[in-house]
Design brief:
This protein is an alpha+beta fold and 135 residues long. Helices cover 44% and strands 19% of the residues.
Length: 135
C-alpha cells in the first residue's frame, strides 16, 4: 500500500511565497489559492490592489486543475480549438492560471492564480509548482 502524501499549511505558504515573489518581481497583483490533497482550500493570499473577483476566480482555477488533474491552460486550448461543449463540464474553469500540484508522482493539491492576463497568471502558478518540485 502506498503512503498518501499531503500538503501541510507551511508547504502551502512556501508555494504561495514562490508564486508571490514572481508576481512581485513583475509588479503583478494577484490572488493565490492553494488547495490540499482533498481539493479543499488550505491557503489564500490576496495581494494589495488585486480586484476582489480574483478571489473566486483563483479558487475556481485551482479546483479545475485539481478535478481534471491537468493545467487549466490545456482545457482553455481545447475550448479555443472549437470544442465549446467543454464549457458544460461541471467544475470547469478553462482559463490559464491553474495547475495541479504533484509531488513524487502524487496529486497533492493545486494552485490557482488570478489577477493579471491569464498567461501571466500561468507564469506565477508555474513558479509555485516549480517550488514544490524542488522539495
Amino acid at each position: 500500500m502506498q503512503t498518501r502524501l499531503s500538503l501541510e499549511l507551511n508547504d502551502a505558504k512556501r508555494i504561495a511565497e514562490a508564486a508571490r515573489l514572481t508576481a512581485e518581481s513583475n509588479q503583478w497583483n494577484v490572488v493565490i489559492s492553494i488547495l490540499d490533497e482533498g481539493g479543499h482550500l488550505i491557503y489564500l493570499e490576496r495581494m494589495d490592489g488585486t480586484q476582489k473577483g480574483s478571489v473566486v476566480v483563483s479558487q475556481e482555477k485551482a479546483k479545475t486543475a485539481y478535478l481534471f488533474n491537468r493545467p487549466t491552460k490545456k482545457l482553455e486550448e481545447v475550448v479555443a480549438g472549437g470544442r465549446t461543449v467543454m464549457l458544460k463540464l461541471t467544475g470547469s474553469t478553462p482559463i490559464e492560471g491553474g495547475l495541479p500540484l504533484v509531488y513524487q508522482g502524487q496529486l497533492v493539491g493545486a494552485i490557482g492564480i488570478s489577477g493579471v492576463q491569464s498567461s501571466q497568471d500561468g507564469i506565477i502558478a508555474q513558479a509555485g509548482a516549480d517550488y514544490l518540485a524542488q522539495l
